[in-house]
Every structure is written in structure tokens, then in C-alpha cells.
Amino acid sequence: MINEIKIGDKTIGDNSPVFIIAEAGSNHDGDLDQAKGLIDVAVEAGADAVKFQTFTADKIAARTDDEIMVLGDEYDTADNLYDLYKGLELPREWQEELRDYAGEKGIIFLSTPFDYEAVDQLDKLDMPAFKIASYECVDIPFLRYIARKGKPILLSTGMANLGEIEEALEAIYNEGNRQVALLHCGISYPMPVEDVNLAAMDTMRQAFQLPVGYSDHTLGITVPISAAARGARVIEKHFTLDRNLPGPDHKFALEPDELKAMVKGIREAEAAIGSPIKRHVAVEEIHYHRGRRSIFAVQDIPAGTEITPEMIAVLRPGIGLKPKYYDLVIGRIARKDIKAHEPITWDKI
Hints:
Radius of gyration: 29 Å
Number of helices: 12
Distance between the termini: 52 Å
Number of strands: 12
Strand content: 15-25%
Structural class: alpha/beta
Largest sheet: 8 strands, parallel
Shape: elongated
CATH superfamily of the largest domain: Aldolase class I
CATH topology of the largest domain: TIM Barrel
């Protein structure tokens, strides 16, 4: 039995709707009104939660001159990783206002912490769960610190192997916290579809018996909808007000209409999963009888007549004996007069 967790009034588990997180991330661009606009878009799209990121450059990156810090031409706002993060910081004094604004709009406010102070600040804001980014899933001391808060944890596992996930879960469990869902994730921006490997969700679910979801960095909405159809119980997707805005995360994010289409597609996909019982359903009832065939008389058959193949045929609609009884009908005696075009039924033979 896969564990369930609760975030606010939402349950994450096999028997609950997919929990959809609209990832605003750093697409606020340092503008509070733009941040609130992102919340509005998430609400309009029907997402369950809107999520930002809480970090400061000084606590997330070293000011090293190592060449790994140098960014390529695809980044239009900074030349190195430290400066990129510096330009994307969410002012922490906004967080309470954003939380309250989201609450007024009826959507859950989340933010991913990237340092210990951020964890404490978000905890004091009564944030109902902690989302841990893929890069941090191997930071065991950090995981322990978050786990001690006693709140549900959504753990992204991008680039992690099963052993690293096991170590992360052991650290969390050892703090007495077993409220965890695992998110499969690909780390490239954008992520090529052929490298997504949604089948890995099945592996994690079987290995750890936890709810499993998917944090998406592909272009478009096909993959997150596919993940929901495959059993993801959480879907997280970046979105923006305008993909042409400067900054690293706008280019692969969904625009408002696309976010709404994704949520609609996920809801339709999970509705389509339905029951594992293979049978016809109520909406098919008329077609079950009208379109299926049954055995009919094709000529008048007087009472007492032995029925031969020339006297009957398998035709629509399915209101007589099923075709599988054809050989049993042949050679039977008509109990009563059967007119041409009448269905053959057991009481007539």
C-alpha cells in the first residue's frame, strides 16, 4: 500500500486527484506585482499550488573563478552563475505578502528553500509543505534540518540514482518524518523528451512505496500530461507571463493559456484512467445492444420445424441470442412460430 500525504486540504496518493504545482520560480523578475500576477495566472489555470524559490546568491554559490561558473550564450542576464542567482533573488520581505495573496485567491503558497534561514522563515509562515530541489537532494544535513520541521516533503530526484534517494529518505526518516513524495525530474533547460524516462517513476514507486510525481522541464505540455496518465500523483511545471521576458527560466516555461491547457489535459488524463475493471459502461449501453449482433430468423420458421443454417443469420442489433450460441441453435426445434426478422431467444426453441 503506497503511503499518502496531505498538503493543506489536499491529499497526495493513489486515490486522490493529481496535485498540480504551478512553478513560478524566479519568473517574478524582482517585481512584486509580477509575482502577484503569476499567482493570478496559477489560480485561473486551476493549479492546486503556486511555488516560488527562496535563495540568496551568497548562500547558494561560491564566488569561485572556476570555469564551471562561466555561463554560455544562452543566458542573457549574467555571465557567471553567482551573478545569475543574484539577479533572481526573491526579496524575503515579499514572502508573507505573497502567501497572504495566494490564500485570498484560494491557492496553496509554496516556496523551495535553498538555505537554513529560508527553511526557518518559510516554516514561520506556516507553509504546509517543503519542496526540495533536485540539486539539494544529496545535501544530507539540509534534508535532516527540513525533516525536523515535521511537515510533508516533496523531494525532487533529478540526476539521483536509487542509492542516493535511499540515503536521502533514510536521513528524513531518521528525524521521525515519513511524509514524503518523490518527484522524478530531468535536469536540462529545456529537457529533451527522449531523455525524460518516465518509466523511472515506476521504479521509484516500487522501490520506496511512496507517492511519486514528476517535475517537468520539457517544452510544451505533452510530457506532464503523459506523466499523469502513467501514475504521477504530483505534477510541477514552470510557467511565466511571457516567454520573451529576459531570464533563464522564461524560455522553457508555459505561458498562461498553455498552463491552463496543461491542467485541463491532466484532469482529462486522470479521468480517463478510471477503473481497472474491463466491461462496458453506462454510456455505452445503447451501443452494446444496437451495435452488437445476435441470432435472427431470416425466414418464417413454423412451430415444430428443425432449424437449419439457411433459416438464421447473425445480425445487428444484439437483442437475441449471442453469436456464440449459433451452433447450439442449429438442429433445435422451434417451440412456436418464429417470423422472419425476429430475434431467436431461448423461449422460442
